[in-house]
Amino acid sequence: MAEGGFVQDQTSDNVLGSQSLDILMLECPICLEELRYPKSLPCLHSFCQECLASYIINESSGKMASASSFSCPVCRRDTEPLNQSEDKQRWAEQFPTNNLAVEMIQHLQNTRTLTMCKPCQKKGDMNIPAKFWCEQTQSYFCESCKVGFHDLFHENCEPENITERNKSATIRRKMSATGCGKHQEKLEYYCEDHQILGCHKCIIVDHRKCEAVTSADDFRDKIQTTKIEDLLTELRKCVNSMEILIKDVEEQLQSMTEDQVTALKGLIDLRTKVNERFDVLQKELTDKLTASFKEEKENLDISRKKCERLMFAMQKTLTSSQDTGLKEDTVGTISLFQRGQAEVESCKGLIQELEKSSRSTSLRHEYNPDILTLDTKTSLTLGKILVHQQQRTLLTAVVCKPLSERQLKMTRKINIKVPTDGTDCTLTGVVLLSGGRIVVGDNANHKVKLFTENSDFQCEMKLGDRPCDLCLIDDNTVAVMLVTVKTICVVNVGDSTLTVKSNIKIQNVTENCFGITYNNNTFFVGTPRSLYSVPQNGGEATMLHNIESKCLYLGSDKVNRRVFASIHTSDPDAVAVTRLSDGTHTDVLKVRVVKGTTGIDVDREGNVYVCGRVSLNVMQMSGDGTDVRELLTSSDEIKPPRAISVWEDKVTQTPTQYGGRWRCSGQDVKQCPR
Predict the structure, then answer these.
(1) Closest CA relative to residue 214, chosen from 236, 233, 196, 201
(2) Do the domains spanning 1-112 and 403-421+430-666 agree at the CATH topology level?
(3) 77, 190, 251, 667: which has the fewest Cβ within 10 Å?
(4) C-alpha pair distances (Å), 189 with each of 201, 209, 217, 473, 498
(5) Which of 473, 472, 422, 428 is nearest to 448 (CA)?
(6) CB burial class (10 A; 0-12, 13-18, 19+) of residue 320?
(7) In angstroms, rounded to a whole number, what is the distance separating the alpha carbons of residues 398 and 402?
(8) CATH fold for domain 1-112
(9) Can you tell me the distance from the alpha carbon of 597 to that of 569, in angstroms, rounded to the nearest whole number?
(10) Which of 517, 413, 500 has its CA nearest to residue 460?
């Protein structure tokens, strides 16, 4: 290492082998290679300038920027640079160059050249390396030629041993005359005040005011008596301590390595067991899903076969009725009539039977999406299989009327205020889904909430802004329009969960956004002055139509790919509803019977439902606006209506007023006129 030290003691040969201590002193303790541009610290340890600079930067990283020192990489002595204000990357350059090390490295490089024995070369043997150098004859000799030739003629001349083991001594002798790297003079003096060797020029220039300056020989004699032996004893103790510490670190590393191997094996074993457990859970869920599907499929197959047999029979009857010879066949005519009557009665009976037993069934695999989040605390589970069943209305021409010919009948009121609400609710949006699930938007509390049609509260989800209109995307997904942040919040709806699927920022709209609907993979948005389309994955909005008043709600006819916009106004003869279709707009309803239009939705037959907040009614009209009728009025004890949603034969409507109660109006098929 590039440490300051003493002449090699008698045991060094056993420790270092053929290498000399001085050669090891020319090795950088950081990179363990020969010193390059060596810099000496005040503690006399030397390092490559580049290595020292990197060390200073790495050690100071994470410390305060005002740190003014660093520790020596070898002895840990606190060391200050000459100029603390300079950038830390340049601190290493401030320390003095170890010129002695530079000179020794140069001499070592010169002596590394393999020299051959001169007498042997003259005898024709060119590959015998020399071991001795004779200053008097200026010749190199191998050991044999030294004894057999040199010593015979030069008895009083002692050649210099130039083997590897003696290179260090040779270098020291050559360096003794110019040991001072600063002045190229012999190091003859020692300053005890600064604890440094110097030539006579160093003493005169840098140490003339020092009190304890002696010759190097005197100081050597002074410390050789007891101090060196004491120091060597301490060094040996320190070496033993380092050996113990190194052994301890190696034992810790070995123990950690064994622990790592054990832990990795444990992880692999656990993963195998977890996989086996999840295989069992997956099989259980798969079996349940398969069994539920099989059961419902069998029921549906039975119903279908009954209908098919009866349908084929009636088709045969219809075919037989077209036989021209039937008019002359009295018995055949009567039989056909009786058979047809029986088949019609059977059809009505079968429809009534199926209507009692018919149910809408949906199968879903539901799980908590938080299990896919890395920092979640949710327990790992494969979720559950949900089987949704509800009574289903059979819409056939024989036993029931279309929605356009029915009247609404009040069935239920639901209180949607929950304990976590900070204020009374303002219901600005509602969506009715399969299975009786109802999602409402609470503008006052910045929430969406999930209920069942039986008034059971399931869950709620806090939003980052006020919601207005809600729309259906598919049977398990709704979109919420957040007003001031102009963002479409897409929400997954489970049986008892609400989770955000994505947030779509509307990029180039500056007005508040109120109405929203979804049709043909595109969102449609209403503002106080315009109607826009927005790509389903986000992006810039496209302005479709300018309007005279704000659009709070939008409805979608997905069958005919038409969008209906409710224009909130009470001005006489102003447009109340406009229709967007194929890039064009058509005004389909004006402010007359309905005023202050708010909520709007479309049923599966293409009928449009419009709420009149000022006129206090709910209207139904055809898609072209030609057939208009009132479904609910003030006589039905409704409050000013706000939002509306239609699902199959049920209509859900919310009031404008604050409070906590809202109205669920629906069509009970059994009570509706046939």
Answers:
(1) 196
(2) no
(3) 251
(4) 10, 14, 8, 94, 87
(5) 428
(6) middle
(7) 11
(8) Herpes Virus-1 (3.30.40)
(9) 6
(10) 500
pLDDT digits (tens, 9 = 90+) for 599-643: 999 988 889 999 999 999 999 999 988 889 888 888 877 888 999
Per-residue tokens: 108: 């070592």
Name the fold adopted by 403-421+430-666: Neuraminidase (2.120.10)
Cβ neighbourhood burial of 405 (10 Å; 0-12, 13-18, 19+): exposed
What CA–CA distance (Å, rounded) separates 516 from 467?
Answer: 11
How far apart are alpha carbons 610 and 597 in whole angstroms?
7
Distance CA(529)–CA(232), nearest Å, equals 93
Q: Kindly state the tokens that stand for 343.
A: 């088949």
The domain segmentation of the chain, as residue ranges, is 1-112, 261-391, 403-421+430-666
SS3 275: helix
375, two tokens: 């920092």
Q: What mean pLDDT, rounded, does the chain reach?
A: 82
What is the Cα–Cα distance from 672 to 569, expressed in whole angstroms?
Answer: 33
Q: Is residue 167 predicted with pLDDT exceeding 60?
A: no
Residue 397 structure tokens: 């021409």
Within 8 A by CB and 6+ apart from 317, the residues are: 336, 339, 340, 343
Closest CA to 645 of 438, 449, 374: 438
List the structure tokens of 607: 């009928």
Question: How long, in residues, is the chain?
Answer: 674
Q: What is the pLDDT of residues 440-451, one digit of tens each?
A: 999 999 999 999
